[in-house]
C-alpha cells in the first residue's frame, strides 16, 4: 500500500502518529515536502535517519520550502522505481524534482520545491525550480502522454493557492512553480493531486487534496495508458552506513528492540 502525508518538519512526535505506526512491510510512505529530519547533522538527527531508513517499509519525501537542499545534494543520486532519487539511508529516499515513479503498478509524478511567508528573497532562488528541472519534468510526462495516476507536490497549482490565500485573508502570492503547476493541471490527465504546503487536511476540489497530518492511501491504477522504459534500481551495496549514536532518541531505540 502507498500512503501520502504532509509536512513533518522534523517533528519526532509524527513518528508516533497512529497513521505512521500502521505502516507494514512492503508499504511506501510519500511525504509531500518539508520532511525536516535532515537539517543540522547532529548525532540525534543521524540516529533518526538510520531508524527511518531501516524500517521494513519505504519512506520517500519531496523537498519543500524548509528543507536543506545543499545537504540533500550531497547524497548519491540513483534510480528508484523508475525515477531519480537521493538515497539517504537504505529505505529512505528523497524524490528529485520532476520525476515519474511506478510503485506497485501506480504511476506517480512528483515535484518538490516552494516558498513560504517566512522567507526573504535570498532564500527563494534554490527552493524554486530552474529551467532544467522543468524541462526534465516535461520530458518525463511526455513519455507517458501526460497521463499519470497521481501528482504529488509540495506547492499547489496557482489558482488553488490564490483561492486558499484569499479565503485565509492573505495576499495572493504565486511564483514560477505555481504557474508551472497550473499549466500541468490543464495539460495532464490524472486521478488526484496531493500537496502539503498549506498545512491542512482537506479536499479542495474533487481532484485536489491538501494533506498534512493524515495518511491517505492511494487507490490502484486505472488511468495510466502510457509506456515508460523500465529502469533497473541500482545496486546499493557500496553505500557506506553512517556511524550513529545519541541519547536524545530513547523512544526510537526502544521501538527498535
Describe the structure.
- The protein is built from eight helices and 13 strands.
- The protein is α/β, with parallel strands linked by helices and 257 residues long.
- The chain has one domain (2-225): Purple Acid Phosphatase, chain A, domain 2, CATH 3.60.21.
- It has a seven-stranded mixed beta sheet. It has a six-stranded mixed beta sheet with strand order 7-8-9-10-12-11, covered by helices on one side.
- Helix 2 links the parallel strand 2 and strand 3.
- Poorly predicted ranges (pLDDT <50, ≥5 residues)? 224-257
CATH class, anyone? Answer: Alpha Beta
The overall pLDDT average reads 83
How much helical structure, as a percent, in the residues? 25-40%
- The arrangement of helices and strands along the chain is EHEHEHEEEEEHHEHHEEEEH
What are the key terms here?
Purple Acid Phosphatase, chain A, domain 2; 257 residues
Short précis:
The protein is of the alpha/beta class. It is built from eight helices and 13 strands. Residues 224-257 have low confidence and may be disordered.
SSE blueprint and pairings:
Blueprint: E1 2-5, H1 18-21, E2 28-31, H2 43-53, E3 58-61, H3 69-73, E4 77-80, E5 83-89, E6 92-95, E7 99-103, E8 106-111, H4 121-127, H5 131-142, E9 150-153, H6 158-167, H7 176-187, E10 192-195, E11 202-205, E12 208-210, E13 216-217, H8 250-256
Parallel strand pairs: 1-2, 2-3, 3-6, 8-9, 9-10, 10-12
Antiparallel strand pairs: 1-13, 4-5, 5-6, 7-8, 11-12
Amino acid at each position: 500500500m502507498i500512503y501520502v502525508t504532509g509536512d513533518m518538519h522534523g517533528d519526532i512526535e509524527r513518528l508516533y502518529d497512529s497513521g505512521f505506526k500502521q505502516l507494514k512491510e512492503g508499504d511506501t510512505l510519500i511525504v509531500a515536502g518539508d520532511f525536516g529530519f535532515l537539517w543540522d547533522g547532529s548525532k540525534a538527527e543521524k540516529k533518526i535517519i538510520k531508524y527511518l531508513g531501516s524500517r521494513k517499509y519505504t519512506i520517500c519525501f519531496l523537498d519543500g520550502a524548509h528543507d536543506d537542499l545543499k545537504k540533500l545534494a550531497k547524497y548519491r543520486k540513483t534510480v528508484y522505481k523508475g525515477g531519480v532519487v537521493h538515497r539517504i539511508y537504505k529505505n529512505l529516499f528523497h524524490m528529485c524534482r520532476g520525476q515519474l515513479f511506478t510503485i506497485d503498478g501506480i504511476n506517480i509524478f512528483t515535484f518538490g520545491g516552494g516558498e513560504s511567508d517566512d522567507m526573504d528573497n535570498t532564500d527563494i532562488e534554490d527552493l524554486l525550480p530552474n529551467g532544467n528541472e522543468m524541462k526534465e519534468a516535461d520530458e518525463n510526462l511526455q513519455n507517458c502522454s501526460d497521463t499519470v495516476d497521481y501528482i504529488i507536490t509540495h506547492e499547489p497549482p496557482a489558482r488553488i493557492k490564490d483561492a486558499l490565500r484569499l479565503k485565509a485573508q492573505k495576499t495572493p502570492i504565486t511564483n514560477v512553480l505555481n504557474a508551472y503547476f497550473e499549466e500541468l493541471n490543464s495539460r495532464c490527465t490524472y486521478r488526484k493531486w496531493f500537496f502539503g504546503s498549506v498545512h491542512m487536511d482537506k479536499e479542495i476540489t474533487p481532484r485536489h487534496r491538501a494533506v498534512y497530518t493524515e495518511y491517505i492511501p492511494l487507490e490502484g491504477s486505472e488511468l495510466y495508458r502510457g509506456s515508460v522504459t523500465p529502469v533497473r534500481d541500482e545496486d546499493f551495496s557500496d553505500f557506506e552506513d553512517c556511524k550513529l549514536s545519541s541519547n536524545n532518541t530513547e523512544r526510537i531505540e526502544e521501538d527498535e528492540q
